[in-house]
# Entry
Amino acid sequence: AVNWIFKVQNFYNNLNFSNLKNVPGVLEYPHLGAYLWAFFWKISFINQEYTGRIVYFFIYLLSIFSLSSFIKLNVVKKIFLLGFLIFVSYDSILFSGYQEPLLFSLCLIFVIILNKFQKENSKFYLCILILVSNLIIWTKNEGMFLIILLSIII
# Structure
């Protein structure tokens, strides 16, 4: 989180993207997560830094719940599956400003939308798939590798 907090403060203080070269840390890291963090910190009523990171938790839960609607099981099995997935994938350090939960969630959303695209072959889902692919790339440097891997699997 040390690298990300400086970028977050840059966006929180209404500085632009060109100012990122003056921010400590690795300049080459993508900044989507830091931008989201700063945005939700800025619009919160509490005005505490952690309110910006809470959005990572909500995106994480949204992706897990979306996955459960994607899988055809009865309600009891879905609840157990949700609990198991959250238990296995949750780590409190991941919500301390690191981009991994956001990347994990975007990859899950990518797979869900890909499934919908394969079923309906709609241009709408193709556009959303391209958008999510770009979001994955702008989340972490490893995003490019993940998109290539997901494309090979496709």
Notes: The mean pLDDT is 86. The two ends are 33 Å apart (CA to CA).
